[in-house]
Every structure is written in structure tokens, then in C-alpha cells.
Design a protein that fits this description.
The chain has 389 residues and is α/β, with parallel strands linked by helices. It folds into two domains: 114 residues, Aspartate Aminotransferase, domain 1; 238 residues, 3-Layer(aba) Sandwich (Aspartate Aminotransferase, domain 2). Helix content is 40%, strand content 15%. It is built from twelve helices and 15 strands. Helix 7 links the parallel strand 8 and strand 9. Helix 1 packs antiparallel against helix 9, helix 3 packs across helix 8 and helix 10 packs parallel to helix 12. The chain starts with 31 loop residues before the first strand and ends with a helix. The structure holds pyridoxal-5'-phosphate. Pyridoxal-5'-phosphate (PLP) binds next to helix 3. The site of pyridoxal-5'-phosphate has 14 residues, from helix 3.
Length: 389
């Protein structure tokens, strides 16, 4: 099959968070958005057809999944990640952030400490703070354009703050790392040693570039299976975020019961019919599309790298190993925070995600979403070049 990822689909006036709400966010209406983590590509045809069939049926009553739903998930995770899921482990939620929040309610009380690795996806810190838990930060180490983990600091802070919960971002948004087995095992062993439960947010696991491999954290050791809540979703992979469905896997019965209890307390019960329909159709029929998309994104990265090297060498690309969110180092421009914001938003007319919102270590960086047609990426880079020059 040929897939045309170059097609520019007009997303304006579609209720798109990315395209329709610039003015409400105090930005110019014509700003070019490459921020929020959805993509500008049409979902696979199999998904569109499955949704269309439901629409034609026209009855949208309370719904739930049948056995064939978990079977499709089992196939996907065993085939792509060699991870064998027990149907009992599955809990469906309307999103991964929702699941993270639910896990915080289920497993900690006010004042308990939760550790995260900044710079990281900003709802991690927001979720911890809004629930009055104590935020503990294990800052990632940035050296020679690459990120790594300070394990001594991770363990020290867990002990010092009596940390209960660790929110792992794997692969990591925004620094693009696909954590290796030895990194994950060092983190996992520290968590085991100190009785820390792990929320493994693996929502970006389907976007892994050549030479790297995503390892399901819970699958690395049976002991990790027992302490982990693995958060997955088809929503980044197949561009379904507006349909609100995520699949959470919790092997430990006690953890699962606590999670389900907190879920019930939140008032959430059956999943969204369109979400489960799209999820099942995507995992069943979207694999070839996804593989083609990864090739396309790889070429977008090649394009971005070449452009920066030749025309904007002051900006450093943090080589992405996974995810379609690329972390760029703007320190070479020698600007302060406000000057950098003005450059990106006012002079270049771009809406990116500003580094500092990802927490400590984010200053001087910007995150760009490359899940768009190449022509859009090129336009964005040319606007940036013009603004700088
Ligand atoms: C690491 C990470 N987790 C979770 C989410 C959001 O997931 P959901 O829409 O299912 O809440 C995102 C979206 O950008 C993300 O990057």
C-alpha cells in the first residue's frame, strides 16, 4: 500500500486544539502550530471504516469491549514488544493522564512523595501538585547533546522523601530517549529495593527509530510485573486522541483492585464506543500504515537534521531515538527566556512547546512536533531561519 503522508489536511474549524484555539491562548490566529502531541495525518482507512459503520448503525448506547478486543491487544503487544498480556490485567480509562491521576489517588495520600524525571511531559508534575502530593524531581543529565539518568540522585531522593510512586516516561517525552535494558533495570531495582510502585507511561512506545528497541518495563523481570501499572494507548500511534481511550495493564491484583476502586470513585464506568471501536480496528488493521508512518517520520528527522546543520547550526538537535516530539537546544543563540519566546512566537510565527514548561532543565529548549507533512516542517524551519537572520 502507498500512504500519502505528504497530503496537507486542513484541520482548521474541526475543534482541533492545535489549530482552532490560538486566539483563546493569546496567540496570533495564523500562527503555525507544531506543539500538542497529536499528528496531522489521517488515521488508517480500517479505523475510518470501523467508525463509519458504527455511525451508520446510529445507536450509541452504553458500550463495552468483548473478548475480541483484548485478543487484538494481546496480538499487538506480543508481536511488537514480545509482551504477553493476561486479559485480567486490562483496565480501560479515557486517557493516560486520567489513569496516572487515578493511580495517584489509589496508591498515595496527600503529602506522599512522587518522583519524576524532568524535563518531562508537563502533566506529570501538574497531576502530582494538583492532588497535593509532594513532587520530587530526579533531573535528567544533559551532556554532549544526550540525556542520561543520575541513578545516585534517584535513589537518594527516594530514600530522603520516602517516595511511594515513580512516574516513568518510556520512551521519554520530550528528550526522545528510548531507555536501554540496563537503564530500566537500574531504575527498577531501586524501586523494588525501596518499595516504590511504578507508573510506566509507555504511550509513545510505537514510535521507535532504527537501531533502538522499546522494552516494556513490566516485562523485564517478574518482580517488576508485580509493582507496575503500565499505561498504553493507541491514541498517539493512530492519531485518535480526540476519541479518548487508553489501555492500562496491572498484573498485581491488589494494585488493580485499588486502581479500580479509585476509578469507581471518579465516577467513570463504561468506555467510549468510538474509542474502543477505533482502538480495536487500529491494532487489528493499522500495522502496515504505522510502519510506513515511522519511515516518513524518520525522513522528517533527516530533513530537520540537514536543515539545522546547513542553515541553523546554532540550534542543536537532540537525536530522537523514539517519539515524534523533537527536543531542540537553542542555547547557541545566546538569548534569555523571554527573547527566545519572542523569537519563536512573534518573529517566526511558530507555536512550539517552550522548554521551561517541562520543568527543570528545560530552559533554552523548545519541543517541536514533527508528525506533520514535510512541507509544513519545511515552512516552519524557513520561518525560524528568517526570524533568526
Ligand atoms: C508521555 C505522555 N503521556 C500521556 C499523554 C497524554 O495521554 P492521554 O491523552 O491519553 O491522556 C501524552 C501526550 O502528549 C504524553 O506525551
Amino acid at each position: 500500500m502507498n500512504y500519502n503522508f505528504d497530503e496537507i489536511i486542513d484541520r482548521r474549524n474541526t475543534n482541533s486544539l492545535k489549530f482552532d484555539f490560538a486566539a483563546q491562548n493569546g496567540r496570533a490566529a495564523d500562527i503555525l502550530p507544531l506543539w500538542v502531541a497529536d499528528s496531522d495525518f489521517r488515521t488508517p482507512q480500517a479505523v475510518i471504516e470501523a467508525l463509519a459503520e458504527k455511525v451508520r448503525h446510529g445507536v450509541f448506547g452504553y458500550s463495552d469491549t468483548r473478548d475480541d478486543y483484548i485478543e487484538v491487544l494481546q496480538k499487538w503487544f506480543s508481536h511488537r514488544f514480545n509482551w504477553h498480556i493476561d486479559p485480567e490485567w486490562l483496565v480501560k480509562t479515557p486517557g493516560v493522564v486520567f489513569a496516572t491521576c487515578t493511580a495517584i489517588h489509589a496508591l498515595t495520600k496527600e503529602g506522599d512523595a512522587v518522583i519524576i524525571q524532568q524535563p518531562v511531559y508537563y502533566p506529570f508534575s501538574e497531576t502530582v501538585k494538583i492532588n497535593q502530593r509532594k513532587l520530587v524531581i530526579n533531573q535528567l543529565v544533559y551532556k554532549h547533546n544526550k540525556y542520561s539518568i543520575n541513578f545516585e540522585d534517584f535513589e537518594y531522593k527516594i530514600i530522603k522523601n520516602k517516595v511511594k510512586l515513580f512516574i516513568l516516561c518510556s520512551p521519554h517525552n520530550p528528550v526522545g530517549r528510548v531507555w536501554t535494558e540496563s537503564e530500566l533495570v537500574r531504575l527498577g531495582d531501586i524501586c523494588l529495593k525501596h518499595g516504590v510502585t511504578v507508573i510506566a507511561d509507555e504511550i509513545h512506545a510505537d514510535f521507535i527509530y532504527r537501531g533502538f528497541r522499546h522494552l516494556v518495563f513490566a516485562n523485564l523481570k517478574p518482580e517488576y510485573t508485580d509493582i507496575t501499572i503500565t499505561c498504553t494507548a493507541p491514541t498517539k500511534t493512530f492519531n485518535l486522541a480526540g476519541l479518548q481511550i487508553s489501555n492500562i495493564f496491572i498484573a498485581n491484583k491488589d494494585l488493580r483492585n485499588k486502581f479500580n476502586q479509585a476509578l469507581a470513585q471518579s465516577g467513570y464506568h463504561q468506555p467510549n464506543l468510538m474509542g474502543i471501536t477505533a482502538c480495536q480496528a487500529a491494532y487489528r488493521g493499522g500495522e502496515e500504515w504505522l510502519d510506513a508512518l515511522i519511515e516518513y517520520l524518520t525522513a522528517n528527522i533527516v530533513f530537520l537534521r540537514g536543515f539545522l546543520q546547513q542553515r541553523l547550526p546554532q540550534i542543536k538537535l537532540i537525536e530522537p531515538e523514539g517519539t515524534y516530539l523533537v527536543w531542540l537546544d537553542f542555547h547557541g543563540l545566546g538569548l534569555n527566556n523571554q527573547q527566545l519566546e519572542d523569537l519563536i512566537e512573534k518573529k517566526a510565527g511558530l507555536w512550539l512547546d517552550s522548554g521551561p514548561i517541562f520543568g527543570v532543565g528545560g530552559q533554552g529548549f523548545q519541543r517541536i512536533n514533527i508528525a506533520c507533512p514535510r512541507a509544513i516542517l519545511e515552512r516552519a524551519l524557513k520561518q525560524l531561519e528568517q526570524a533568526i537572520n
